Amino acid sequence: MIKKILNSGALGALVIALGFVILGLGTSIHRTTDFIIFCIFVIGFDLLYGHMGRLSFGHMLFYGSGAYAAGLLVRYGPPNPYLAILIGICAGALVGGILAPVIVRATGACFALVNLAFNQVGYFLALVAFAKFTAGEDGLSLTFSVIPFLNLTNPKVFFGFSLFCLVLTYYFMKRLTSSPYGILLRTIKENETRAQFLGYNTFTYKWITFILSSSISAFAGALSTINYSYVNPSFIDPTRNVEVIFAALIGGTGSLYGAILGGVSYMLISNYLARYIPRWEMFLGIALLILVFKFREGIWGSIRGEWKSRVEG
Amino acid sequence: MISTLIYGLTIGGILYIISIGLSLTFGSMRIVNFAHGMIYTTGAYILVAVLPLLKCNFVEGVLIAILVVIPLSFVIEKYIIRRLYGESIDYAIIATYAVLLIGVDLVKWIWGTSPIPLSDPVGRSVTCFSVTVPSYRIIIIVISLMICIGLWLFFKKTIVGKIVVAGLQDREAVRSLGINVDKYFSIVFVLGSCLAALGGVLYAPITTVHPYMGFHILLISFAVVIVGGLGNLKGTTIAAFVLGMVMALTGRFWGPAAEAMVFAVMAVVLIFRPIEV
Fold it and tell me: Is A98 an 8 Å CB contact of chain B?
């Protein structure tokens, strides 16, 4: 019975929710909401990197398309935040679905670079080509309508709502990665040819996974637009890709807890430690080098390793 | 129209000079080298720093920039790239990107974030076919063609070049002949970095010198390398000039779209010719 509950992920969800509530009480609500949204983004990214073994260097594109779709809807259509989130997710899925047939053919380095190239194109579209609608560099500042029952413009309500979204994403991913589909993803990561031998059409699976990953990222983007109530090109800036990669690496790839721990760690570093670090990019670069050469398993990976050696030894 | 053609050849030449180093690193070590962009930026900044400091002329400045880059690229090769050999390619991307970040921040620390304009070192223009073109552009095209021929001779005629080409084809076979392939590949890496610095200093007078200049050109160079085929030197050469033309033609109609158009061409190429890495 206890094992069943443990495996269902209910306990994990509870721990995550409690952790964020404590963090929210300890720091500020607005900032913690930002943390939560970033964690959703890291989960979306890690579905591709940790589970399918494809490093995307352009995931800001999907984050940004979600953010911009939500922002444009609110500016030029009904300012309903729920509709904005929905449209944001759809936009992410659409962009991912269209680009995936080109992107998922590539592996390894090509996969990363092609993503980065498309991200650059998306940045250009938002910054220059559609500047008439997106207001270019200035971005759009948005006002959302007040929904009587769950008013997302209230920071506390939005905090609860984002936390609910994170738990929902967590639960969805937990089910997904422990299903036969999730096992197939890991097979693709380890040996794609083998998966093809077993009769699976890996192209379709990669396509679907890519769409899922881009939708989750766009979900985070749309939520972030509501949190900040503006959207500008920094939401789709290709040079910011390194943030999510850093978060996924520091937390430990291929695990949901790792993604969430990584998201929180990165946000804590960038929000609180950054004040004492005069050269932020250099710090990020050196930290990345340490992560790559010395600390590959990440925080969650080392916790798990320690746990295993305790139990066995 | 002819000025567009010349402009396309100029960009193509610069792209060729930069991409060949990337292509060599990828072909030899299977590593996608983001640090290349940092070398490129460093080259241009050294030139900017050296010109007023030593009161030397442009050519001397270029030579100094290239000389400074040699030990730098040697250190990167020895402590970063060499350690990544045989590892997962994702770690190589992340680690070299980290080097790029550190480099960009160092440049910002030393020279500040504001772009530095650099005047045309030649100044004169030539008129051919009733079009006036700055002669500096012509010089760039000539230099890139010279490098093209020089590299061709290097890979065909010299023993070092032949070892490198053989190593690109089949690393293990060359090793089994008792040749230390890694040593030759590190020579190639330094050579590629010198070319990146050369590309940086040659392109600097056409655009401005700013800390993120490496990032943009690097993305386009990656597109060149992907279109040309990773590690395929002949393909890279053709792709560089073709994409240079694409940029010039797009830029003629709508300037900002030039970069985006390169990636569109890359996407089309990828659809019809998926790459196995």
Answer: no
Q: Is the ipTM of this complex over 0.95?
A: no
What is the pTM assigned to this prediction? 0.90
Taking only the tens place, the pLDDT of each residue in B195-228 is 999 998 888 888 888 888 888 888 899 889 888 8
- Mean pLDDT of residues grouped by 10 in chain A (313 residues)? 66 84 86 93 93 90 95 90 93 94 83 89 89 86 82 86 92 90 91 89 92 95 92 91 92 89 92 84 90 87 88 78
Ramachandran assignment for B254, one of left (phi > 0), alpha (psi -120 to 50 degrees), beta (any other): beta
**Chain A residues with CB inside 8 Å of B102's CB?**
281-282, 285-286
**Are B223 and A117 within 8 A, CB to CB?**
yes
For the beta carbon of residue A153, count every other beta carbon within 10 angstroms.
14
DSSP E strands in chain A: the ranges are 140-141, 230-231
- The separation between CA B225 and the C-alpha centre of its own chain, rounded to angstroms, equals 10
CA distance linking residue A264 with residue A247, whole number of Å: 8
pLDDT at residue number A130: 87
CB contact under 8 A, B26 and A109: yes
Strand, helix or coil for residue B239: helix
DSSP track, A79-128: --HHHHHHHHHHHHHHHHHHHHHHHTT--HHHHHHHHHHHHHHHHHIIII
- 8 A C-beta contact, residue B121 and residue B105: no
Question: B101–A242: do the CB atoms touch at under 8 Å?
Answer: yes
Which chain B positions have a beta carbon within 8 Å of A279's beta carbon?
105, 109
Nearest-angstrom CA–CA distance, B239 and B220: 11
* Token pair recorded at residue A222: 């749309």
Distance between CA B157 and CA B169 in Å, rounded?
A: 17
Of A112, A242, A113, A108, the closest CA to residue B218 belongs to A113
Provide the shortest C-alpha distance from residue A123 to chain B (in Å).
10
Q: Write out residues 35-94 of A within 8 Å (CB-CB) of B.
A: 49, 55, 57
A7-65 confidence digits (pLDDT tens): 667 788 888 888 888 888 888 888 899 999 999 999 999 999 989 988 999 999 999 99
Instruction: Say which residues have a Cβ less than 8 Å from residue B248's Cβ, sequence separation at least 6.
Output: B4, B5, B7, B8, B11, B258
Answer whether B93 sits within 8 Å of A112, measured CB to CB.
yes
Which three-class secondary structure state does DSSP give residue B29?
A: helix
CA–CA gap between residue A83 and residue A98 (Å, rounded): 22
CB contact under 8 A, A281 and B83: no
pLDDT value at B135 more than 60? yes
